[in-house]
Amino acid sequence: MKRVFDWLHGTTFKLLSLAVVIFLVWGTLAPLETIIWWLSQDEESMNPDASQPDATSDDDSSTSEASVNCYVVFLPGVGSYDADNLTEEESNFVDRVIETHPYCVSVRDVFPYSAANEGLVGERILAPVWNVIRQSDGLAYTVINIRNIWRMALSADPRYGPVYNRGIASAIIDRMNAASPMPPANQRINAIVMSTSGGAQVALGAVPYLDDWLNAQVYAISIGGVFSGRDGFEQADGVYHLYGTEDWIDDIGWIIFPSRWRWVFGSPFNRARRQGRYQAIETGPHEHDGDRGYFGEETVDDGTKYIDLTLEKLNALPIWSVNNHSTKQE
Fold first, then answer.
1. What is the phi/psi pair of residue 242, to 5°?
2. 238-244 vs 216-223, strand pairing mode
3. 221 phi and psi, to 5 degrees?
4. How far apart are CA 47 and CA 234, in angstroms?
5. Is residue 172 over pLDDT 90?
6. Is the pLDDT of residue 5 over 50?
7. Contacts of 38 (CB under 8 A, 6+ apart)
8. Does residue 79 register a pLDDT over 70?
9. Within 13 Å and on the Cβ side, how many CA atoms surround 288?
10. 47 vs 293: CA distance, rounded Å
11. Among 46, 55, 145, 210, which residue's beta carbon has the most beta carbons within 10 A?
């Protein structure tokens, strides 16, 4: 007992207590950035009703642009610090997806941990600090993870989530247009939002707004993602969660979010699961990241690369053709 008493009065415990307090205060202040951004927006930017242009008889889109009917949006995990900041493995993965599906274009410059789509090393007051941290290894870099985890929590929060997720959806549409101009509003498109880690929650949070603003089939693909069971399930044409047997991070979602517990029968997640609009698909012995992660180049016993196992499951999903039939809830 004396050891415990001494430890409670020791330096280690005091430092740990200070870290916990800072973590909680940081979380309390996390919504401020989103609230300030929201107050600076006008009606048009918050409600982009005309995301796709009206159809005209003299549409002069090029052949390559006109052939695009699919947008693959990739949202990275909580280790990201800027828009267009995919790792080499993630970029290779997205490249291979687009090679397999030539009518798709990739959108990889959305930062899912800022409603304004502003990276940590952009035009921010603390940009120099974040720039130093991002170049650090180990403990220092976890500060970025913690900061982004709080933004993921904002996305899942019913108080702040609607504003935050609306901002992300607006950024997604803006970058979709930048990747390839949107086809006319009478042309249905495929909007496939892929994500990993905490980006999965943000992706699902953006789905209702994408569904409202676009004439599109909207699919959410989680690759080892963490997400609640509240957002996006009723508006998406399909939600698919790819998971590896050696990935324990993706288990966090069903532990901390009651809306994913099986006995919460009326949650959007459980309704989608019972109706077949949500599917969890095992990809293989993937870990959450690294060489044996979903985008890893190491091989399993039969010589197949981990990235190829992921691509095999992804390409087999019934999401790649555009049709006028919707499976979402009205």
1. -95, 130
2. parallel
3. -115, 115
4. 20
5. yes
6. no
7. 46, 115, 163, 167
8. yes
9. 15
10. 38
11. 210
Q: Is there a contact between 231 and 214 (Cβ–Cβ < 8 Å)?
A: no
Write the single-letter amino acid at 125: I
Query: What are 211-234's pLDDT values in tens digits?
Result: 999 999 999 999 999 999 999 999
Q: What is the mean pLDDT of residues 230-258?
A: 96
**200 Cβ contact list (under 8 Å, min separation 6):** 75, 220, 222, 223, 225, 226, 227, 241, 253
Q: Which residue has the higher pLDDT, 26 or 266?
A: 266
106 has a pLDDT exceeding 80: yes
Tokens standing for residue 290: 């690294």
What gap in Å lies between CA 66 and CA 55, rounded to an integer? 13
N residues, the chain: 330
Helix (H, G, I), strand (E, B) or coil at 249: helix
pLDDT band at 244 (very low <50, low <70, confident <90, very high): very high
Spatial contact of 220 and 195, defined as CB atoms under 8 Å apart: yes
The bridge status of strand 104-107 relative to strand 238-244 is unpaired
Taking the C-alpha atoms of residue 171 and residue 46, their distance in angstroms, rounded to an integer, is 11
Number of Cβ within 10 Å of residue 92's Cβ equals 14
In the DSSP assignment, the letter for residue 110 is -
- Which pair of structure tokens corresponds to residue 152? 């993921």
Contact between 107 and 74 (Cβ < 8 Å): yes
CB 257 within 8 A of CB 153: no
Mean pLDDT of 187-215: 96
pLDDT tens digits, 271-300: 999 999 999 999 999 999 999 999 999 999
**How many contiguous H segments (helices) and E segments (strands) does the chain have?**
13, 6
Q: Which residue has the higher pLDDT, 30 or 67?
A: 67
310 and 223 in contact (C-beta within 8 Å)?
yes
